Amino acid sequence: MEKRTELYRGKAKTVYTTDDPERLILLFRNDTSAFDGEKVEQLDRKGMVNNRFNNFIMTTLEEAGVPTQLDQVLSDTETLVKRLTMIPVECVVRNFAAGSLSRRLGVKEGQALEPPTFELFLKNDALHDPMINESHAETFGWATAAQLAKMKELTMKVNSVLRRLFDDADMMLVDFKLEFGTDAEGNLVLGDEFSPDGCRLWDKETGKKLDKDRFRQGLGGVVEAYEEVASRLGLKL
Ligand code: 5GP
């Protein structure tokens, strides 16, 4: 399967059409952005690492019964996926306080959250991805009540599967963001990607940050940290 026309250029991935109307190709680029695209850099190997990492996680989730858009990896940086109509709502689960939750509620970074929190954000750079609730999503037609219920159920399932996976590799899954879409039959399916660009991972012993906060906070060693996460999970890059 080959790329045809560019359908959408995101901040870290480009989406292409293919000859199959039900399939798209995701190209994972080296671009790394933060603060709604205000800080952008090219980081060598990041596209390849995230593509391989995403494939590993999506395969793991699929095996655990979470429907994903994954079809097959095509190359170091390209993956064939099912075409979805994306829902413009980001689902965030947090097991430990960090980032915008700590800023918003004044909670100390690292505080354990029991039960884990579940939040919704509108995917809209111009508005800086504002936090929303289910009522907003329904009223403005971003998602139906049934879709929201399913999104929450699947996001919590992803959390329980991945928390254990990272814990076994001596990492804390602090938080993560998921995006969903609907396929041609109207089924809710996990879309976008799962990589250290969209989650927080800390070393269990030292608390070392192994995710995109290294880029956001100018800590350096961004791709090296992603590669360390991959290698701890037994992934060959
Ligand atoms: P926060 O709300 O603390 O900024 O982010 C919570 C979690 O969701 C973090 O793991 C963060 O990486 C992820 N996240 C939230 N919004 C986005 C986004 O627009 N893009 C990406 N890649 N990750 C996001």
TrEMBL record:
UniProt pathway annotation: Purine metabolism; IMP biosynthesis via de novo pathway; 5-amino-1-(5-phospho-D-ribosyl)imidazole-4-carboxamide from 5-amino-1-(5-phospho-D-ribosyl)imidazole-4-carboxylate: step 1/2
Database matches in PROSITE patterns: SAICAR_SYNTHETASE_1, SAICAR_SYNTHETASE_2
Domain of life: Bacteria
Domain SAICAR synthetase/ADE2 N-terminal: 7-232
One GO MF term: phosphoribosylaminoimidazolesuccinocarboxamide synthase activity
CDD domains referenced in this protein's UniProt entry, alphabetically: SAICAR_synt_PurC (cd01415)
Biological process terms in GO annotation: 'de novo' IMP biosynthetic process; cobalamin biosynthetic process
Gene3D superfamilies found in the cross-reference section: ATP-grasp fold, B domain (3.30.470.20), Phosphorylase Kinase, domain 1 (3.30.200.20)
First-tier enzyme category under EC: ligase
Pfam families given in the database record: SAICAR_synt
Record carries keyword Nucleotide-binding: yes
EC number(s) reported in the record: 6.3.2.6
Catalytic activity: 5-amino-1-(5-phospho-D-ribosyl)imidazole-4-carboxylate + L-aspartate + ATP = (2S)-2-[5-amino-1-(5-phospho-beta-D-ribosyl)imidazole-4-carboxamido]succinate + ADP + phosphate + 2 H(+)
Keyword annotations of the record: ATP-binding, Ligase, Nucleotide-binding, Purine biosynthesis
GO CC annotations on file: cytosol
Matches recorded under InterPro entries: SAICAR_synt/ADE2_N, SAICAR_synt_PurC, SAICAR_synth, SAICAR_synthetase, SAICAR_synthetase_CS
Family designation: Belongs to the SAICAR synthetase family.
HAMAP family: SAICAR_synth
Family matches, as NCBIfam families: purC (TIGR00081)
Protein name: Phosphoribosylaminoimidazole-succinocarboxamide synthase
Species: Pseudidiomarina salinarum
Gene name of the encoded protein: purC
